[in-house]
Amino acid sequence: MDPLLEVKDLRKYFPLKRGFGERVALRAVDGVSFEIRRGETLGLVGESGCGKSTVARLILRLVEPTAGEVYFGKTSVFQTNKEELRQLRRKMQIVFQDPYSSLNPRMPVEEIVGEGLTIHKLAKGTEKKNRVAELLEMVGLGREHMGRYPHEFSGGQRQRIGIARALAVEPEFLIADEPVSALDVSIQAQVINLFEDLQTELGLTYLFIAHDLRVVKHISDRVAVMYLGQIVEIAEGNELYQNPLHPYTQALLSAIPVTDPQTKKQRIVVEGDPPSPIHIPSGCRFHPRCPKRFERCDQEAPVLREISSGHWVSCHLY
Ligand code: SF4
Question: What angle in degrees, to the nearest 10, is found between the helix axes of 155-167 and 185-202?
Answer without folding.
Answer: 20
